[in-house]
Amino acid sequence: MSSTGQDSTTTRHRRSRHNPQSPLHDSSVTSKRNTKKGAVPRSSPNLAEVKKKGKMKKLSQAVEDDLIIGFQELDVNPEAKIAVGTGLVFDEQLNEFHCLWDDSFPERPERLHAIKEQLMQEGLLDRCVSFQARFAEKEELMLVHSLEFIDLMETTQYMNEGELRVLADTYDSVYLHPNSYTCACLASGSVLRLVDAVLGAEIRNGMAIVRPPGHHAQHSLMDGYCMFNHVAVAARYAQKKHRIQRVLIVDWDVHHGQGTQFTFDQDPSVLYFSIHRYEQGRFWPHLKASNWSTTGFGQGQGYTINVPWNEVGMRDADYIAAFLHILLPVAFEFQPQLVLVAAGFDALQGDPKGEMAATPAGFAQLTHLLMGLAGGKLILSLEGGYNLHSLAEGVSASLHILLGDPCPMLESPGAPCPSAQASISCTLEALEPFWQILVRPAETPEEDSVEDGVQEIEEEGPWVPSVLPILTWPLAQARTGLVYDQRMMNHCNVWDSHHPETPQRILRIMRHLEELGLAGRCVTLPVRPATEAELLTCHSAEYVERLRATEKMKTRELHREGANFDSIYICPSTFTCAQLATGAVCCLVEAVLSGEVLNGVAVVRPPGHHAEQDAACGFCFFNSVAVAARHAQAISGRTMRILIVDWDIHHGNGTQHIFEDDPSVLYVSLHRFDRGTFFPMGDEGASSQVGRAAGTGFTVNVAWNGPRVGDAEYLAAWHRLVLPIAYEFNPELVLVSAGFDAARGDPLGGCQVSPEGYAHLTHLLMGLANGRIILVLEGGYNLTSISESMAACTHALLGDLPPQLPLLRPPQSGALASITETIQVHHRYWRSLRVTKVEDKEGLSSSKSVTKKVPQQANPGLAKGMTMPKEKVLEVDMRKATSALPAEESTDQTKPEAANVTLTPDQSSETATRRAALDKAPSEETVEEAPVHQATSEAATGAVVMHPTTSEEAEGGAELIQTPQASYTENQFPAASPVLGATALLSPSQLTGDPGTLELGGEALETLEPQALEEESLLGEAAGGQDVADLKLTQRFQDLAEINQGILYAVTPLPWCPHLVAVRPIPAASLDVTQPCEDCGTCQENWVCLSCYQVYCSRYINAHMVRHHEASGHPLVLSYVDLSTWCYPCQAYVHHQVGPGQTHPYPHTCIPFYPWGKGTQKPLAVSQRLVLSGAFGAGQEVGWLRAGVGVASWLW
Predict the structure, then answer these.
(1) pTM, full prediction
(2) Which of 458-467, 582-591, 640-649, 973-982 has the lowest mean pLDDT?
(3) CATH code, 86-438
(4) Which residue spans within 212-364 are E strands per DSSP?
(5) Which CATH class is domain 480-798?
(6) Quick one: CA torsion of 85, 791, 810, 431, rounded to 10 degrees?
(7) CATH 3.40.800.20 domain locations along the chain
(8) Of 176, 205, 261, 1190, which residue is 20 to 30 A from 365 by alpha carbon distance?
């Protein structure tokens, strides 16, 4: 069977294949009985896995470029040094300047003194790798700043106090000292020293504790205490010296880092993210460029991200929400190779300038979230922070995280306030056209009222702690505990040695952990059986006794007893092994809560999350995770808040039922649902299941409705749903039902999560509950996949940073729809999910009259008198329209009046124009009625309007160099990412919306409906179906141009099956694919029985072919969609070729086969030949179909 890949209706139309295999159970029956988990045909084990090896027919230049970039980023040196340790640059020389005429100036030497005392008090200085500061060379500073400006600053060393004051007054919020230049050079050089150390693998991350700050400094302009822009210079330095292609700069200083933004706002190789106080422009630096509507210019459009706070008192929850909903999704798509942080701590509670209410624990969380990016290559450079105590605590907290210490719990995380939600929503809307990960499915309108009986959570008022919380850092003797006992291998299937839940599962995992040295780094804890009292917290006494009785049963009795449950086998050792597995997890809980270890991993079997209170189910007997949760609450002596995350591909029905009325346990499950047809069947795993009674809202189900869900989909669910709810819940312990049957290559899951993906999921969860997290093995049936995945998670628990993910494709639209559906269900219970569109964006953009301090004319780089179009220019639809216009057409349509722009020798007219437009105070706008279609880059005469798909030279000779973005791109798009605002080869109307005409290679082809076309599971349920849009074979070949350049996946069919004798001669009337279902009359996906040649619909329509098979026993059916043959008893495709000299039970001559219906096209001949391949064209014969047997797929 073949497929071209995942769905993405926003990027391309994909070819989708059906899987005609049916479940072992009729979909109309809701009971789980007779529906076996993990039924795999033994006659052909290869059917258990989708082959990962694709066949590339043609490679376009864009694909070749992507491969080259990918190979360049591979580390092929087996002896490469693994970076360890945290670097720290701290030099007393940086305190040798101060304000000569104002002793109370906030930016003063006492700032570094307070930080040093705090770090010494906590012993952090000794734990860091100390680096000697160095001076930045002029050539290095010139990567960002002009030579004239640098020379001017150098002359300040020889000025007297009066001259320094006069020069300082030409800038905004600046003082100068004879040592200012030296210290600024030393500060920039300190960051560069860390860049060399991190990228040279001397250390894995670092912090530069420097002053003066730098993020306000511009090309030829001091501003806001800043002389040289340290992080900007560091980014350019990393690109030039270390050949880094993508840099992420995060600016969490409470003031907008306009200097950094202006440096990179045309550059797609640097992603700039700033979260700052704005208050509709009333807060310094009073720039409209600081608002959410500014996203960059030219090739850099979409690479500038501003999250403006329009109120004071913003808390940790607001900052974390901005990171989860905006920064992390974009960063994972951008895939930076280095992360630089402009780490100002003036947003901390108590800071006189910021007036915010963030805590040091909150900044620790932000640091932890960033450590999962760029392979952990993270450098923090100190910026602002003017409350000495808060500043020292904030620096200390971030440094703790860099050193690998667990994140402290938040005092009162809550959810983002309405003002923060509005800002985040506006930023998301501005960025959505540029980043595929931010595209959200259309939400179903809902009434404002809440359902009867459901009490909506009241909005909380601003929370401001009376004093800054005192952080405590756990001092565990060891980091990660490990529980494993080989006796758990005694549970085995004595009737079926090929059963997927095999004893080898835990043995292979342990061997792999030992091979990698991970087992030796963990603390191996002794295990014990669970006590009866522990089991009775989740299971009934009658059920426990029933299982205990199996120890004395004979083989035949055990077989009968197992048949009484769903997908269960029992042997004499089953009870002992299940009791031991549950007890092992309880031992691990005890070790974590006592502080003996920080976190842990349980390599146990049999699994547990399907086990009900009074019934075994789906390979599970005792619900280990549920018992462990109750045990944790019991030994803590209180109702501890516990988060259970179940990422097993099968829904944990047992765990859900046990806690569905308990608000102290938040249960989150991500699983394949397939609209109720995936094990354990029924509607229990639907998104609408939210718990009951007091536990309403504490059951969260993300129900995937198709296969091939991978890293992109799980990360999207983490960022949009799982983590926002988890932070709002603020658990004290995290338990993970860690089934790895969603891993790529698993025979039951059919999904594609990588070991690296699991490592990232684990890392993100480690920010919760003070780092107290326990992973408990559940499912996973590919021995290699589960070994590698558990090892990756163990690496993360041990503090090893997750590796950089490969290029992520866009999430499937169907998966995004599932996430959105769950959000819509739960937003009434969790305020952290209420990030929706804001209608009144004008109100959020309005500002009162504010006049920014205007530097004197002598100031180099100043441009004034410029005007700016209204923010409507950045509305999504207008931006799409203007970005698609050629430069000549755009300039002809809008011809604004010339504005007064003052140029300096080192500025292009375009640069000065844009700077002036952005620096203008909002209250000083003079073009209030600018046309909404006017492009920002066209705001004044002299601006260079750049064609969005090319790189042009700006006036003045500044050439923009476009760096390929690391997002997943398709062949029909330019090598540059669509986030650049480039004109796509396919217009937006061709990519989304109603079916139209898609032109490829000069031919008009009918497009598919804009729905997710998902490949059905290769081992899942049966006789799959599609929408009517997929019925006609002409539409199966409409994206032939794309297929010729794509990668195909194949499944190996059976070469023979014992049911071939059931195939009867073909009727003389031939086969007609347009024949409707004989029961319901539908023309949607139909199948023909190869015994009686009756036509019925697939199970996804009305399941009449399934019922026909059950009633008649006819085994083989032929698909009218893809001409494949499916055998119900074998649960497999069949592709049987007659050898030379062999006879066949149906030696018939060729008869016509009409794939489009009679009278429409030339018929295909049906004979005993095999369809090998063919080019599909008008009037051409595609190939031959072997009557009655068919093939697995068309092999293009």
Answers:
(1) 0.70
(2) 973-982
(3) 3.40.800.20
(4) 247-251, 270-277, 304-309, 338-343
(5) alpha beta
(6) -30
(7) 86-438, 480-798
(8) 261
